Structure formats: C-alpha cells, structure tokens
Automatic annotation (TrEMBL):
<dbReference type="Pfam" id="PF09345">
    <property type="entry name" value="SiaC"/>
</dbReference>
<protein>
    <recommendedName>
        <fullName>SiaC family regulatory phosphoprotein domain-containing protein</fullName>
    </recommendedName>
</protein>
<feature type="domain" description="SiaC family regulatory phosphoprotein">
    <location>
        <begin position="15"/>
        <end position="129"/>
    </location>
</feature>
<dbReference type="InterPro" id="IPR018530">
    <property type="entry name" value="SiaC"/>
</dbReference>
Length: 133
C-alpha cells in the first residue's frame, strides 16, 4: 500500500529593520533570506524556520538552493545560520538533494563575503558568490 505524501506548506516572513525576509518554498527547493538579522529573541525568531527546514530535509526537492542576500547578521544569528547550513550539509551528504548556496554581498562588504567563505570552508556545499545592487 502506498502512502500519500502530504504537501509541505511554504513559509514566508516579511523583512523588518531587525529581522530578515524569509522565503522557504518546499516544492521548488528554494530557501531565501534577505536583509538584516538582529532580532531581539534570536532563538524564538528562528525556531519555526529551523523546524520547517528539519521537516523539509525529511522529504526534500531533488535540488535545494539557499540564497543568502543578507546585509548584516549579529553573532547569535550567525550561530543559527551555522545550524541551518549544517542541516543542508547533511541533506547534501546523504544524497537526498543536490544543495547549492548563492551568497550575495554588497560591493565593499568584506565582512559578509568573508562569512560566506567561512561557511563554505566548513562544508562541502557548492557555493557561488554574487554582488547585491
């Protein structure tokens, strides 16, 4: 007897001055973060996002693309993104999905580009870099 796979809902949050815009699309395999990440309660803000990603990794799209269009993130947010990238690394390592990361940074924003390079050096994920306008 075959089981019907329940369709996973997409997840979106609008960008604010202190929290990023978030767009997570299960069927398309797209995860996108934009803006600034300096929420007052980092763990509380990111808990539903981590939960969504964990659920996604149990039944991912054939290809998963993480787009990081972040202009700034504080240290507590960096820890959360380390966890997100680790979850995606496991997904790629297991062969369940081909995972790629597109890391955007503003021209002259060496801090954010360096952060992307740090994440890349800690994983075997396919990273590419682009400049935000």
């Amino acid at each position: 007897m075959s089981e019907l796979k329940s369709k996973m809902s997409d997840f979106e949050l609008s960008r604010t001055s202190g929290s990023p815009g978030v767009m997570l699309k299960a069927e398309a395999g797209e995860l996108k973060f934009t803006g600034y990440s300096i929420p007052r309660e980092t763990d509380e803000f990111y808990a539903p996002i981590i939960q969504w990603i964990k659920r996604y990794t149990s039944s991912p799209a054939k290809e998963t693309r993480l787009s990081m269009e972040m202009e700034y993130m504080d240290n507590s947010s960096r820890k959360v993104f380390t966890k997100i990238i680790e979850l995606l690394k496991e997904l790629g390592t297991n062969g369940d999905s081909k995972v790629s990361v597109v890391w955007f940074s503003k021209q002259g924003s060496d801090d954010m580009k360096s952060l992307g390079q740090k994440f890349q050096s800690e994983t075997d994920l396919d990273f590419s870099y682009a400049t935000l306008d």
